[in-house]
Amino acid sequence: MKKSLLPSLLFLAQTACQTTQPDVVVTLLGTSDYHSHAVPFYSEGKHDQAGIARAMAYFKKARQTPGTLVISGGDTLNLGTPTWSDEYRCIEWAWLNGVVDIMAVGNHEFDYGPEEFQRCAASVDYPLISSNLVGADGQPLLRPDGKPYVIREVQGVRVGFFALGGSDFPRLIRSHLLPEGASWKEPIAEAQATVRQLREVEKVDAVVFIGHQFREEDEAMARAAPGIDLILGSHSHFKSELVKIPGTETYFISPYQYLTYISQVRLRFRQGKQVEVTGELVKMDENQPKDEQLEAQVRQLQDQLVAKRPERFQVLGRALVELGDEGLSQHETVLGNWATEVLRKAAGTHAYFSTASSFRAGIPPGDITVETFYTAIPYKNTVVTADVTGEQLLAWLRLSVSKRGSDIFSQQTGVRYRAVEGDLTQVQVLVDPARPEVGYAPLVPGASYRLATTNYQAFVAAGYKELFASFANPVTTTLDAHTVLSEALRAGPVTAELDGRSGGN
């Protein structure tokens, strides 16, 4: 009896269909750390950068391509600066309806308290998530569709998205700013549990973390919770093109801050399996078109703001050079050199340190308005001093250098050093705080020095606060950093330069 060819032909037809099935590409556009910067501003040495009208135009055009999702990594607000935030709060949240797909909750979302957070959340049609924000019963407070994560399906491909509050959230957010009874669970354990749930129960084809924690915590999470395909960086205001985190299969990209860049990542799937991850940062500079309608609205609101709060737009001083901020987390900057030296003189100490996170933008040459000043140095800090031995000062300096590339690397003055592969050499300290013109001398391990820093670095920043606790004669001074720097600007004009104080790599 002749064998039928029908089963074979059906198998070949099915195989041919499978092999010719087109790839599915999911494109993710990620933003983070917007901090109410609706109006274009000065960034990386250029005026007229970013602005929400530019980003919105880019998002709307990109969404015309099927499979495109827009993700916010959080920190959309910022108490105190820019003035836009205090006046208009979360007005942009509703503008993003129909454009943003998911938003992670950052620490600044709670700047104005729980009632304001709830009001803002009620204005949007996209989900807000953070798996480790829990109520008094220990269960996640933010559960769109009953779950503390979000799954989006694109042409049959299921992508799971989750978010966390970083380990510093309990210190950064005072309890009265959160909903009653709310708290933050340890993020790594929550990440592990969420990834397992997404992979093993939800059976997603990819897992994406959207914020909101420091870059170092992102990297540690990738190693501790295998199964995360992509991390959209946030919180550190770090700028990074798409890279693979060493020792993992997890990709990482981070778009700096204030909508100056958008992270654009493409996840390619073939027959339901992820086969490629590509991406880049897209700069929102003067060459990017703006959404004209939104631009007009922003301009009108800003004009109203200037009329209502003219004191914030008055000229405070003048800079003879650009007080640049490029590379704040990597090496010395002109802005950091100027500010730390002004504060060191005011404190009367050998050295002054301030985490890179104290500074958020450069200051262009020319007139400096109050708003420009607060944009560059937004956070309120008090000067704290202590006596240290040379050995303790060296330990503090080593910690700072070990944090190069992060928000808690130190901008500093009064110390000069070389750093080669993390090893410090040629460490010198200012000889006489009252007479800096005398110069520097090699650090003496047994000698006594007076160190100054911010109250954040002394009492909150991980690693530093433990070291500072061992220092002698700590004093929280009455010196307010904003007041001291403002007075220096008024006495102006100001100038500064790079001098190689934080040399090496």
Can you describe what's shown?
This protein folds into 2 domains: 22-299, Purple Acid Phosphatase, chain A, domain 2, CATH 3.60.21; 314-504, 5'-Nucleotidase, C-terminal domain (5'-nucleotidase,  domain 2, Alpha-Beta Complex), CATH 3.90.780. By secondary structure, it is α/β, with parallel strands linked by helices. Helix content is 29%, strand content 28%. The protein has 15 helices and 27 strands. It has a 6-stranded mixed β-sheet with strand order 6-5-4-1-15-16, covered by helices on one side. Residues 28-237 form the Calcineurin-like phosphoesterase domain. Pfam families: 5_nucleotid_C, Metallophos. It comes from Archangium minus. Keywords: Hydrolase, Nucleotide-binding, Signal.
Averaged pLDDT: 95
Largest sheet: 6 strands, mixed
Q: What's the shape?
A: globular
Low-confidence stretches: 9-13
* CATH fold-level assignment of the largest domain: Purple Acid Phosphatase, chain A, domain 2
Strand arrangement within the widest β-sheet reads 6-5-4-1-15-16
Proportion of residues in β-strands: 25-35%
Give the tally of β-strands.
Answer: 27
User: Judging by the overall fold, what is the CATH architecture of the largest domain?
Assistant: 4-Layer Sandwich
Distance between the termini: 79 Å
Rg value: 25 Å
- What is the H level of CATH, i.e. the homologous superfamily of the largest domain? Metallo-dependent phosphatases
Q: Class by helix and strand content? A: alpha/beta
- Helical element count? 15
Overall number of domains:
2
In helices, the fraction of residues equals 25-40%
Please identify the top-level CATH class of the largest domain.
Alpha Beta
